[in-house]
Amino acid sequence: MKIKLSDVSEIPLTDIDPEDRLTDFSLDGCPEKLTDSVKVIGIRHPISVCPSGNRYSIVSGHKRFQAAPRSGLTSIPALIIPEIDDASRLVINLNENFGQRHYSDIEKGIILNKLKHAGISDETIIEEYMPLLELERSKKIFLDLFGVEKLSAKLKKLLHRAGVPVKTFSTFYKWNEESRAAAENLFSRLKPGVNKWRELLEHLDEIATRDNTTPENILSQDDIKKILGISSLTPPQQYDQIHQHLTNRRYPVLSDMRKRVARALDEMELDDKTRLKFQETFESNELKLELKFHSEKELSRQVEKIFQALQSGSVKKLIKIFQG
After folding, report:
1. For 83, which DSSP code?
2. Which residues have CB under 8 Å from 156's CB, separation 6+?
3. pLDDT digits 0-9 by tens, 169-213
4. Across-strand partners of 97?
5. CA distance between the termini of the chain
6. Considering only CA atoms, which of 97, 110, 107 is closest in space to residue 58?
7. What value does the mean pLDDT of the chain take?
8. From 278's CA, which of 36, 119, 175, 246 has a CA 20 to 30 Å away?
């Protein structure tokens, strides 16, 4: 559809329906810097609207529309498009923003849902509109992203803000509503980065599958409640403790071996500057001792401690752990 400059009009903000968010694809809202810009230079680029009853609906430009009243404006320049259906509004917005907006996987999923609910076939969405979202023409990717409709609005925002990709958050599709709600509560408190989202979800999903339970049951256990109840811990510290607890549950044999190694090291009573290095997965039985020193005296002290550990038999105990 070609739009002439003569179609630009100054429209009162009250003539535009603020509740019609069909083409509002962003989960971030209006950035403060845009409001500051509008206060200084006004709206330089018109929004696009179309008639809808006795008011207008936004086709593109939701952030500019939100910035306008915050900047003291009572009207906004707009390109008036003849009345069109929902599908056309969505397509126009996608084309106008192609190459300018980079959507998160959550936002892409929301957009695909809107296109489908507007009556556009799966085949048309995949062939014509997924490339506008920088997506491959893939049925699997379409279905993976389309599944975001199962997630709550709050969980979508958490995933969007952390930049969690669909290959990670699609884990939620297998969970029941109660488990997703429990995870939503946990992640809203911990606010981890994208990699930590992935690690925690992998732990929860594998433990639940192996033990024939639900993630909700795992997250409601006393050990995790206790960690979350310690007010002196920061969210990152709470995450680390919960992650360690779940790691121990996911890999009980490895966890037991690490505890045995820790006890053996305590018995050896090595110098603080002496470090034992080994493969965390215990796939190799090779052990390394690293000595750091600045003087002959420091080296002598460390060697003496190692010799005492050999005489006490604690080194032998350590070696047995790795030899199985």
Report:
1. P
2. 27, 106, 110, 148
3. 999 999 999 999 999 999 999 999 999 999 999 999 999 999 999
4. none
5. 73
6. 97
7. 92
8. 246
Q: Of residues 252 and 296, which shows the higher confidence score? A: 296
In angstroms, rounded to a whole number, what is the distance separating the alpha carbons of residues 235 and 169? 21
The two most distant CA atoms of the chain are separated, in Å, by 94
Distance, in Å, from the CA atom of 38 to the CA atom of 69, rounded to the nearest integer, reads 10
Q: Is the pLDDT of residue 3 over 50?
A: no
* CATH of region 1-100: 3.90.1530.30
Other CB atoms within 10 Å distance of the CB of residue 308: 14
What residues does each domain of the chain span?
Answer: 1-100, 102-150, 163-250, 269-323
For the chain, the 3-state helix, strand and coil shares in percent, each to the nearest 5, are: 60, 10, 30
Place of tokens 């604690």: 314
pLDDT at 76 > cutoff 60: yes
Distance CA 128, CA 131 (A): 7
* pLDDT 10s digits, 255-291: 788 888 888 899 999 999 999 998 877 778 899 999 9
